[in-house]
């Protein structure tokens, strides 16, 4: 360790926070360097002198009783449970959290809207015209059935998955004198 | 009441904990505030605000430092804020002439000790950052790395500020701090 490096580390040396290797190097340097030895000694004495001076000119200072009283009184008025309301446990989140919550809420709304928009059509219930079969409703049932096929081709087995969509139209009626509605079935091409 | 109980009590907004906080930290904080701002009256306001802010935000204390260190960090922030605010005040000459001169209060012996102290006068000549480092080092007895964490600056910056602050103190207080001619000093570093 040279003088410049020791001067740079003198505060750490006095704190005793150097690593054991650096501490040993510092001590070795001090043994051979009168100037750094003197600088360290002066720095230590200056520190002690300042500590003494700080203590001496502040030791008689005490926090005045009226300030203590004011702190206690204001703390009761502002923060302590006597003045708390039933919603006092609730606090608004910090601005960053507020932004995050608002962003999450908006994102959730967009996702829900997109999900509703791209939902497959659901069976519809259409009321029949009024008349003797007032209670009858027609419904369309959408059935999607998968079909999995295998066929050998050379040394390989080729498999394929197709979906067939069937729309079944039916009528539901209520009452005693209803006639069963004709059932139509329409087979659509694979998707 | 030990520190852990004190913190728990403050988080629960317990009035006994508030009293214990004022009793245990009030004087020490007040002395530090006096050194920081050089004016006991301003220091009273600072300590009062610091204690109230501590009670208000006790739920944020995470125990990564001692309670007093946390209090001191709040004090430093408030002291800087007060200082900035004071610098921003625009002097209104007309208003000053119309204003009735306040009755001069007789300073308490403790206040007089501080204000007449050459050390306090010299501290007042230092820049804010240099004064802070000096007080943390020699009044609060913090190590360099603790000061760096406390102020949120690098260790190198702490050392640099300390170096210049000590040099300035030696220039401002040649009689008190002149250790260069001391013949009766022991070589402490050689022990």
What's this model, at a glance?
The complex is a heterodimer of chains A (191) and B (191). Chain A is an alpha+beta fold and 191 residues long.
Characterize the structure shown.
Chain A is α+β, with helices and mostly antiparallel strands. Among the domains of chain A are: about 5-60; about 125-185, no CATH class. Chain A has six helices and four strands. Chain B folds into two domains: about 1-90, Orthogonal Bundle (Rna Polymerase Sigma Factor, Chain: A); about 115-180, Arc Repressor Mutant, subunit A (Orthogonal Bundle), CATH 1.10.10.10. The radius of gyration of chain B is 19 Å and the shape is globular. The interface between A and B is large, with 41 and 54 residues.
Helix/strand layout:
The complex is a heterodimer of chains A (191) and B (191).
Chain A: H1 3-8, H2 10-15, H3 20-32, H4 34-58, H5 65-78, H6 95-117, E1 124-127, E2 137-153, E3 156-172, E4 184-187
Antiparallel strand pairs in A: 1-2, 2-3, 3-4
Chain B: H1 3-11, H2 15-37, H3 40-56, H4 67-88, H5 93-98, H6 109-116, H7 118-125, H8 128-138, H9 144-151, H10 155-172, H11 174-177
Helix pairs in contact in B: 1-2, 2-3, 2-4, 3-4, 8-10, 9-10
Percentage beta strand of chain A: 15-25%
Radius of gyration of chain B: 19 Å
Q: Which sequence of SSEs, written as H and E, runs from N to C of chain B?
A: HHHHHHHHHHH
Average predicted confidence as pLDDT of chain B: 79
Query: What sort of overall outline of chain A do the alpha carbons produce when their principal axes are compared?
Result: elongated
Give the tally of β-strands of chain B: 0
> CATH class of the largest domain in chain B, anyone?
Mainly Alpha
Main sheet makeup of chain A: 4 strands, antiparallel
Q: Any idea of the CATH topology of the largest domain in chain B? A: Rna Polymerase Sigma Factor, Chain: A
| CATH architecture designation of the largest domain in chain B | Orthogonal Bundle
Poorly predicted segments of chain B: 100-105, 179-191
Mean pLDDT across the residues of chain A is 77
Span of the ends, CA to CA of chain A: 81 Å
Q: Report how far apart the termini of chain B are.
A: 40 Å
The profile of the biggest β sheet of chain B is:
none
Cα shape of chain B: globular
Count of spatially separate domains of chain B:
2
- How many strands appear in the DSSP assignment of chain A? 4
Structural class of chain A: alpha+beta
> What ranges of chain A have pLDDT less than 50 throughout 5 or more consecutive residues?
none
């Amino acid at each position: 360790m040279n003088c410049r490096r020791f001067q740079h580390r003198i505060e750490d040396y006095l704190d005793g926070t150097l690593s054991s290797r650096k501490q040993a190097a510092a001590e070795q340097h001090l043994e051979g360097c009168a100037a750094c030895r003197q600088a360290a000694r002066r720095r230590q004495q200056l520190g002690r002198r300042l500590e003494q001076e700080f203590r001496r000119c502040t030791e008689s200072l005490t926090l005045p009783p009226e300030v203590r009283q004011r702190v206690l009184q204001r703390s009761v008025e502002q923060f302590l449970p006597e003045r708390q309301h039933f919603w006092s446990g609730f606090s608004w989140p910090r601005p960053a959290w507020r932004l995050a919550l608002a962003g999450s809420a908006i994102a959730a709304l967009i996702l829900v809207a997109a999900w509703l928009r791209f939902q497959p059509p659901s069976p519809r219930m259409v009321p029949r015209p009024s008349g003797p079969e007032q209670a009858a409703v027609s419904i369309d049932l959408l059935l999607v059935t998968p079909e999995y096929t295998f066929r050998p081709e050379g040394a390989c087995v080729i498999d394929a998955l197709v979906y067939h969509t069937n729309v079944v139209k039916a009528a539901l009626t209520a009452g005693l004198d209803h006639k069963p509605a004709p059932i139509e079935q329409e087979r659509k091409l694979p998707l | 009441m030990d520190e852990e109980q004190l913190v728990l009590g403050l988080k629960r907004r317990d009035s006994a904990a508030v009293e214990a906080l004022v009793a245990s930290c009030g004087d020490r904080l007040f002395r530090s505030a006096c050194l920081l701002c050089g004016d006991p009256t301003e220091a009273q306001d600072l300590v009062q605000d610091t204690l109230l802010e501590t009670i208000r935000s006790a739920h944020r204390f995470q125990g990564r430092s001692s309670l007093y260190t946390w209090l001191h960090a709040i004090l430093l922030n408030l002291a800087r804020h007060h200082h900035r605010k004071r610098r921003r005040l625009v002097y209104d000459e007309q208003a000053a002439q119309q204003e009735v001169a306040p009755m001069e209060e007789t300073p308490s012996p403790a206040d007089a000790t501080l204000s007449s102290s050459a050390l306090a006068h010299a501290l007042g000549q230092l820049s804010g950052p240099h004064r802070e480092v000096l007080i943390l080092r020699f009044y609060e007895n913090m190590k360099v790395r603790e000061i760096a964490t406390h102020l949120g600056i690098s260790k190198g910056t702490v050392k640099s500020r300390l170096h210049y602050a000590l040099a300035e103190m030696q220039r401002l207080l040649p009689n008190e701090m002149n250790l260069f001619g001391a013949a009766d000093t022991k070589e402490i570093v050689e022990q």
